[in-house]
## 1
Amino acid sequence: MKFEMKSNIRTLCSYNVEISKQFLTLASAGVAFVVGLAISNSQIINGLFYITVTCLVLSILLGLVFIMSVVAHISSEENYDVYSKQLRTLAMVQMVGFFFGIILLGYFFINSIRESPSTSISNPTVLEKRAPEM
């Protein structure tokens, strides 16, 4: 019975680390997306850009700290129980930073589409331009 309980705690620990890694990956992709938008149109860089990047980078950093803290917790105490207050707080702040970053990313993306001169009706895109007739 004790072995089964220890196995369950190890599984939960592994599950928590995997979730943190998923948030870390998605936040990294969000940063890449926002930076790509900013590179394509430097006129859209404003305060919202910096707040969005800050939230996503905060999520990335907290995810890394969470994973490192779990490893340290396991190696120092030989305990797979990751429900300590410090670890739960790190995980929650990582998730909150990620969700705020994603919400701001959506808002930033919609604003960048509205402000982009390439989406204007008076400025046709490459696909709308016709080749000269001969």
Note: Residues 58 and 97 are 6 Å apart (CA to CA).
## 2
Amino acid sequence: MSSQEFQEKKKKVLIRKVTPEKVLEEIAQGNKFIVLEDDIDNVPDGYTLVDMKYKDSSFKTLVPEQIVWYLANPGEGNIDDALDTVSDFYGNVKDFEEDAMTEGKTSVQDTNWATTARDSHQVYLINKLTKNGKDYDDKVLKELDLNDSYVKSRVEGIAALLLEKTPEQLEKNPNLKDVLKHVTINLGKETIKTKELQRQRCYVGSHWEYKDKYVPVTKVVEHTKTYSGIDSKVDDLEKEIHDYREKKHNGKTGRHDDTLIRTYINLTYVTKENPKAQLDIKPAEKVNKDEQKKDQYRT
């Protein structure tokens, strides 16, 4: 990052904390996590003032009442509405946290907010995928095309890459034959004279002696070292799934579909074998309301 880029980033960080007179402007922009720079006299309708204290520091935020309820009752309420709302909130918190880290001014309070938002987001994703928090909802899996052979094979391919399966292990799954590209990489050739292989050092190491049972020759032997691996990437497979589903559904896929598929991969394949290899679950980007209205009337 250049000095100029850092200064620009720093300016953005500094304006993350909002003065009371700018609150309504932030609300109009859809911000669901408003960090206050000063005390506020009148809390806007639909928002709650949360003052999180730690030792001598105070961290005041304005948060929608609906968010407070969802965070206090994770998994409750309308799942689709909750997923939209919590994702928006988590996105705002994540932006603030990342900016604070860039500025080197993180606090216990913003870390607590980020953890709470992330945990709640995860709960609603799991609730969307399941009927009771345990068994998958077949209807939702079908909507996500997880029973489609094209999507399923790539989902299994992503899991295999995350778990670093060997080519030998992958051969056992026929679904991955056309998904993961198996390559052999030549690391280089080394030249050895067989004559050298037929000699040995004398016992004091001062000179070479031929082994009696060998006849000296000068034939050159080339030995190639190879490495067998998989030339595929998780990002590429995710893009293939996304593009395929967009085309299949005429561009009308759900806002959280990619995130739900990632969550499904973690839960089904990765968590039980290697939790550290899980895909990062980020909040889905907010859908532009004007674009959403256009889609409703698009034929």
Note: The CA atoms of residues 158 and 234 lie 5 Å apart.
